[in-house]
Amino acid sequence: MFWGLSAALDLFEEYLNMSKRSEESCEEEKPNEEPKIVQINILLFGSNDPRHVIKTMAKMYAHKAKGTTPIINFYVVDGCIETIARHIALLGIALESPESMNLRGKVHLFMDVYGNSLLRASSYQYLVGKAKSLFKMLTDDECRERMTPFLNFENLKYRERDGLENAFRFWLPKEGHIFHIQEYWAARLRKLMGVRYDHRDGAFDWDLNMVLKDREGQQICSQEYRHWRETGIAFTYPEYEYSKPNKTLAVGLVRNGDKYIHRGYVGDMQTGPFSAFGLLSADERLLQSAHGQNDYRSTDVTERNLLELFHELSTETPYEHNLKDSRRYGSVKLLMGKTLLYNECDIDAMHDYDKPWIHIEGINIRFLSSEDVFKLRNGDEFWSNHFDVAFVGYNYFAFLKDSFIKVLKKKCLLILETKLMTTARNEDIKLFEEKLMNYAKVNNFTSVINYSALNKKHSILKYKRKMDAEENCANNH
Predict the structure, then answer these.
(1) What mean pLDDT do residues 87-107 have?
(2) SS3 of 464, please?
(3) Sign of CA dihedral 110, 111, 115, 118
(4) Are 390 and 43 in contact (CB under 8 A)?
(5) Cβ partners under 8 Å of residue 221, min gap 6
(6) Could you tell me which residue ranges the Dynein assembly factor 3 C-terminal domain spans (predicted)?
């Protein structure tokens, strides 16, 4: 919960690549085509965060430059309404007007809200102002049309809209809006560790060096991982102080007069928010290591990747990274960011952050009801043959039935997230991956990549529908 366990994907590019592989299987070459409009529907089934939406939006300008005009309809479904509220807030940061803040400030703000249990005062102040703006947007259609016309809440039930309102109100600094994240984190950590709690530093090192680094977590440094496991603060810089509770991590909100009851913290406490943006990079200079020590932390890789995506969202031009802008903290022992005492009512927003969001032409984002989880898995007739791409989060695979396939088009891309980037035993990882592969096989899917020929583990598995050669060529032509 709260963040995905696989890297952010340009899902439009993934769809095009799948289509090209299908075309290559035809005997005749497909004639050159004029620039074309490609419209696709993408289902995010429990993705836990908006990473795929952000990266897909950021890369749209590159597809346009190649002569393809994408029109992309995202359908986001999650069983927890507070997670949807967090989705919206993170999208709001990514698409914040450049007039409101500079690029690096926006990146550090996003990293704070995305991956830290405690926020800097400036980030908390922004979240308060943004909550007011999001509340207006949710309750006033004219305001939403002015700010974010590409967001659509029509599928949400009234109780779910009320849930969003509760979340946005809870983020405001009022006396009854209590979220003692440090206490919740410490108590849950003690419970999860059990008898190992007094030796937790050794357990943290084992989980990182013997488990995650043996999978795809090589870029995570020991210092940042241990600090996150202990405090819930993943992304730190020495000059910053962390003192305000990140209320976007609260779930199960129930209003009780002027106060709120909630479930405390119930998210991930073993992997961390490093997978989405912090493990891979097109800039290989940030992935270098020497004598077993990374030159750069996963935090630094996350910063660099977000700088690229947010630059592209704002300017629709390629990003060139100056390596001098990245701090080489991989092997440096840092005084980790301080955590301070705070007063819930000691701050209020100076700004409302109600400028129109950056508009990306050809993007529509529709948030679905939690009831649609069951309609989709049952292949409800309303959604029949609707989606060109479906991404299924690892913790939502249990909801799938064979009838789910009915909502996918014949020429579709199915992406299944594995449990690779968890600290589960290798036997459990393998068993879960076998379940994914068997589900695809039973429902007449074939892998986009020949996984059996690759001697590596995978955080996602990509599949396409099996079609005989004649039907395949006919569809492509």
Answers:
(1) 95
(2) strand
(3) negative
(4) yes
(5) 293, 294, 297, 298, 329, 330, 331
(6) 151-447
Q: Which amino acid is at 447?
A: S
- Centre a 10 Å sphere on the Cβ of residue 321 and count the other Cβ atoms it contains: 17
Distances (CA, A) of 89 to 2, 101, 221, 260, 424: 12, 16, 28, 20, 30
pTM for the full predicted model? 0.93
Amino acid at 300: D
* Phi-psi category of residue 242: left, alpha or beta, with phi > 0 → left and psi -120 to 50 → alpha: beta
Q: Are 215 and 270 in contact (CB under 8 A)?
A: no
Res 349: pLDDT: 45
Task: Please give the Cα distance from 23 to 474 (Å, whole number).
Answer: 10
The whole-angstrom separation of Cα 412 and Cα 15 is 8
Residue 101 in tokens: 């803040």
Sorted by sequence, the CB contacts under 8 Å of residue 325 that are 6+ apart come out as: 104, 307
Q: Could you tell me the two tokens for 33?
A: 């085509």
Q: What is the DSSP letter of 46?
A: S
Query: CA 442 → CA 401, 446, 450, 463, 465, distances in Å?
Result: 11, 10, 17, 12, 11
What is the rounded CA–CA span in Å between residue 203 and residue 224?
Answer: 15
> Looking up tokens 């050809």, which residue turns up?
362
User: Do 60 and 360 contact (CB within 8 A), yes or no?
Assistant: yes
The predicted model gives 135-160 an average pLDDT of 94
Q: How does residue 345 score in pLDDT terms, banded at 50, 70 and 90?
A: very low
Query: 103-115 and 298-315 are packed helices; what angle lies between their axes, rounded to 10 degrees?
Result: 130
Strands 36-45 and 387-392 come out as parallel
Name the residue with tokens 């995305």.
114
Q: Which of 16-25, 316-325, 344-353 has the lowest mean pLDDT?
A: 344-353
In angstroms, the first-to-last Cα distance of the chain is 42
Could you say which DSSP state residue 447 is in?
E
Give residue for tokens 């994907």.
9
SS3 state of residue 198: helix
Q: With 0-12 CB in 10 A as exposed, 13-18 as middle and 19+ as buried, what is 217?
A: buried
Identity of the amino acid at 169:
R
* Alpha-carbon separation of residue 40 from 132, 153, 284, 363, 388 (angstroms): 33, 19, 32, 10, 6
CA separation for the pair 330, 334 (Å, rounded): 10
Alpha-carbon distances, residue 237 vs 241, 247, 270 (angstroms): 8, 21, 21
Structure tokens at 461: 């598995």
Q: How far apart, in whole angstroms, are the C-alpha atoms of residue 457 and residue 217?
A: 12
